[in-house]
Amino acid sequence: MALGTYVLSRANHNAKAAFLQRLDALAINRDGRKWWNKTAPTNEQQSPWYNATRSVNIEISAYAALALLENNLVGDALPVLNWLMDQRNAFGGFVGSQDTVVGLQALLMFAERFSSQGNNVQIGFQYGEGAETILNVNAENSLALQSVEVSLRLV
Amino acid sequence: MELSATRNLAVGYQRLLYYRHENGAFSAFGLSAKQSSTWLTAYVARSLRQAAPYVQVDEHVLQSALAYLASVQSPGGGYEERGDIFEQFDDGGISLTAFVTLAMMENVVRQ
């Protein structure tokens, strides 16, 4: 379903809108994360094959993210990307080689779409008595970490 | 870094050819496998097209893989796995058909 939606989007087929809608109805939303679950029977969750299910879910969600990005729905893809980021292991991969390929492809495409949008975001923090910091995030510095030290007395 | 990546790519390409069947298709366990895998053949066709800008890829290998895929298309337009099962989507061939279509689409060489 997710893979099908991605391919229809790539081909710009006129069924893609209906597929995107159906796909969205199947998603799980929680804590600002969005993903797709191919449910394993509960008695299998302890089995060694449980990881294989997790791997499939990563692939499904990654293809769904690719489909959304293909349609320039960057904002809709963000919760899916957040979920995918949570699934990465300590080495930067996911569960297996195949889900890692598709997962990285989705993350990469997001980076491409996001940085090419000419985003210009201004973030303001207000804390304590009238203290304020404004951070600017734009195409030039979107990959750089910006940090602000907040005086200890406020914490 | 770039050098070792292209070297790995070239070595991987050579190794891949060992898994190529006479009919142009591929399977996971070499020629001892009785059946060619639809999914894997599509996967190879996608990967080789992506690799082609970086290493020398025999166009005949690609075209025969695509020809094999075209030859196993069912009358309804879909694809079924004939070899070892590789994908686990378990959705009656929808994903497989989409995947093969993707392999075909990506192999339309832009003039």
| Strand residue content of chain A | 5-15%
Regions with little confidence, pLDDT below 50 for 5+ residues of chain B: none
Helix/sheet category of chain A: alpha+beta
Main sheet properties of chain B: none
Q: How far do the termini of chain A sit from each other?
A: 48 Å
The main sheet of chain A orders its strands as 1-2
Question: How would you describe what is shown here?
Answer:
The complex is a heterodimer of chains A (155) and B (111). Chain A starts with a helix and ends in a 17-residue tail after the last strand. Chain A is built from five helices and four strands. In chain A, the strands form two sheets. Chain A has a two-stranded antiparallel sheet with strand order 1-2. Chain A has a two-stranded antiparallel sheet with strand order 3-4. Chain A has 155 residues and is of the alpha+beta class. In chain A, a hairpin with a 3-residue loop joins β3 and β4. In chain B, α2 packs antiparallel against α3 and α2 packs parallel to α4. The longest helix of chain B has 16 residues. Chain B starts with a helix and ends in a 5-residue tail after the last helix. The interface between A and B is medium-sized, with 15 and 12 residues.
Spell out the key features of this protein.
heterodimer; A: 155 residues; alpha+beta; two-stranded antiparallel sheet; B: 111 residues; mainly alpha; 4 helices
Task: Offer a quick outline of the entry.
Chain A has 155 residues and is of the alpha+beta class. Chain A is built from five helices and four strands; from the N terminus they run H-H-E-E-H-H-H-E-E.
